[in-house]
Amino acid sequence: MVIIRHGDFLTLYSNLTNIIVNVGDEVRAGQAIGQIYTTPNTNQGILHFEIWKEFRSLDPKTWLHP
Q1: Backbone torsions φ then ψ of 21, nearest 5 degrees
Q2: Alpha carbons 66 and 4: distance in angstroms, whole number
Q3: Which ranges of the chain does DSSP label H, i.e. alpha helix?
Q4: Contacts with 15 (C-beta within 8 Å, 6 or more apart), sequence order
Q5: Taking residues 33-47, what's their average pLDDT?
Q6: Which helix (H) or strand (E) holds 57?
Q7: What is the mean pLDDT of residues 26-47?
Q8: What torsion do the CA atoms of 9, 15, 16, 21 make, to the nearest 10 degrees?
Q9: What phi and psi, each to the nearest 5 degrees, are found at residue 62?
Q10: Please, what is the average pLDDT of the chain?
Q11: pTM of this structure
């Protein structure tokens, strides 16, 4: 799991393999942080993504670019 702090906001990414960032790294928009795990028999992957404002979970659909 990778958690990135954006001021008062946190984004959480899980179901990753080959994580390529480390604790304390500065991460920029569009930068790869790892690879989504792909199920071998279906060749499909699902990213678990959450957005939090401090201790309150937010709906990520309202934040994603179409």
Answers
A1: -115, 160
A2: 21
A3: none
A4: 36, 37, 45, 46, 47, 48
A5: 92
A6: strand 56-58
A7: 93
A8: 30
A9: -75, -10
A10: 93
A11: 0.84
Place of tokens 């990135």: 4
Residue identified by tokens 């480390």 is 22
**CA 27 to mean position of chain CA atoms:** 11
- 21-31 pLDDT, tens digit per residue, is 999 999 999 99
pLDDT greater than 90 at residue 66: no
- Tokens 């393999």 -> residue: 17
Each residue's pLDDT tens digit, 2-16 = 999 999 999 999 999
CA distances from 51 to 20, 40, 44 (A): 20, 28, 23
Six token digits for residue 63: 């934040």
For the record, the structure tokens of 36 come out as 């989504």
53 alpha-carbon distance from chain centroid: 15
16 token code pair: 């990753």
* DSSP-derived 3-state class of residue 14: strand
